[in-house]
Design a protein that fits this description.
Layout: E1 5-12, H1 30-41, H2 43-53, E2 58-62, H3 73-88, E3 92-96, E4 117-119, E5 126-131, E6 137-142, E7 168-173, H4 190-195, E8 201-205, E9 211-216, E10 219-223, E11 241-248, E12 256-259, E13 264-271, H5 278-295, E14 301-310, H6 314-318, H7 323-335, E15 339-348, H8 353-357, H9 362-375, H10 377-384, H11 388-394, H12 401-416
Parallel strand pairs: 1-2, 2-3, 3-4, 6-7, 7-8, 8-10, 13-14, 14-15
Antiparallel strand pairs: 1-11, 5-6, 9-10, 11-12
Helix pairs in contact: 2-3, 5-7, 9-12
Length: about 425
């Protein structure tokens, strides 16, 4: 039976204040883009409200509070105001700075943070004590980047700290296990985290995809992901927010995700196999958009749409000169304040794939080869060889390789199969 929860703390990271949705102006109407930027900036206000509503007495921020080391003045002032709100509620805030907002010696803050805020300095991890609502304490330790390209394994510095083993939190901006799609700053391994057995909870930042994983009984490491999605990259899509971490008398229970995002990015792979023409294909897109709007709980969605499947509409869809504009018009009422930011035709000629595989020609041999690569991703990585790091970065991680193989297959069928 789980031990009763006596308190919580909130774990957030990668707020990137000062640059919300900076690329939208190139993709959608300027007035709508400005509205969405302002809305997205409110994700920080939602984090403050979440912390207060949860009656949490501790908030930890694991790096990249700001998007740039210069820390835009308006963003600093908004952050200071939020910290003051938390101070008025008796919440203590612990901040470890990362690669986007390192504590460089030349930095001069535009606003003094209230006394409830502890900023970890670079170097050896510092240990602080926070009092909880029931009078018990939580030990929090951390360290910050002193430059924008930290290459040392900072996690190893936490071994041997005097923290206690039941309720202790380490705050660190780091790349765990060489996660692709992110610069390899402060690299560390799961063994490094487990080896610091005085730490019960690793509050990590840097990786924008949410991860919660156990390290053993009562021990966890977690990335909350970023607070607000910023593009249609896979790691920026879906619900974004913070983790609420339950505390018991003797330890830490499994963190629970709470959304804070005010605008949601989604990637829609829409199967239009059933469509007989372009109009029916776009109707299917509209239906899918309606489902996403419902799932986003009144948040506007910004969608990247990939039309896929073997469809009779294939040729007509390829002939649409400005697919994004046509699609926007079709789904405008459904999306409301949201929009289509990108669209792509990845359908193929309506031909039975099984029949193609049986033909014994060049196309069938190539399809067999692609199937072999899908079944053995390590072989694909081996064939890419020295280009793999560049490929991982360009594709936002090796998880995009199956999508790449699907694209290769579509091209081959289009070029080698008779219409």
């Amino acid at each position: 039976m789980d031990e009763a929860e006596i308190s919580t703390f909130v774990h957030a990271a990668d707020l990137h204040l000062g640059a919300p949705l900076h690329s939208l102006g190139r993709r959608i109407d300027s007035a709508k883009a400005e509205h969405l930027r302002k809305l997205a900036a409110s994700a920080f206000d939602r984090l403050v409200s979440l912390t207060i509503q949860q009656k949490s007495k501790v908030l930890v921020l694991a790096g990249d509070v700001y998007d740039h080391a210069e820390r835009e003045i308006a963003a600093q002032l908004r952050f200071q105001q939020g910290m003051q709100q938390l101070c008025d509620e008796g919440v203590k805030v612990f901040i470890a700075h990362g690669n986007h907002d390192p504590l460089v010696s030349s930095y001069r803050p535009a606003a003094k943070l209230p006394d409830n805020v502890v900023v970890f300095e670079p170097g050896a991890p510092q240990v602080h004590e926070a009092e909880l609502a029931d009078g018990s304490t939580l030990n929090v330790c951390g360290t910050s980047f002193s430059n924008s390209a930290e290459t040392e394994n900072l996690a190893r510095r936490f071994r041997g700290l005097s923290l206690g083993t039941e309720r202790s939190v380490a705050v660190l901006h780091a790349n765990l296990a060489g996660t692709s799609g992110h610069d390899n700053y402060a690299p560390c391994t799961v063994d490094d985290l487990a080896g610091a057995d005085n730490v019960a909870y690793w509050a990590l930042g840097h990786i924008h995809a949410r991860t919660v994983a156990p390290l053993g009984p009562g021990r966890w490491y977690a990335y909350p992901g970023n607070l607000q999605g910023r593009s249609t990259k896979p790691t920026e899509c879906g619900a974004k927010g913070a983790l609420v971490v339950p505390l018991t008398r003797h330890g830490i229970s499994e963190p629970k995700f709470e959304p804070c995002d005010a605008v949601r990015f989604v990637r829609l792979d829409v199967d239009v196999s059933a469509a007989q023409d372009a109009a029916e294909a776009l109707d299917i897109v509209n239906e899918q958009c309606a489902l996403e709007v419902g799932a986003a709980e009144d948040r506007p969605i910004l969608a990247r749409v990939m039309l896929c499947g073997a469809s009779h509409a294939h040729s007509q869809l390829l002939e649409i000169d400005d697919l994004v504009a046509v699609m926007r018009e079709r789904v405008a009422e459904t999306l409301g304040d949201g929009d289509i930011v990108n669209a792509k035709v990845a359908t193929r000629i309506h031909t039975e794939r099984a029949q193609l595989l049986e033909r014994g020609d060049l196309l069938s041999e190539l399809l067999v080869e692609l199937d072999a690569l899908r079944a053995a991703p390590d072989e694909l990585a081996e064939r890419i060889g020295d280009l793999k790091p560049a490929a991982d970065k360009a594709l936002a991680g090796s998880e995009a390789y199956p999508e790449l193989l699907d694209e290769v297959e579509r091209i081959l069928i289009d070029r080698l199969e008779l219409p």
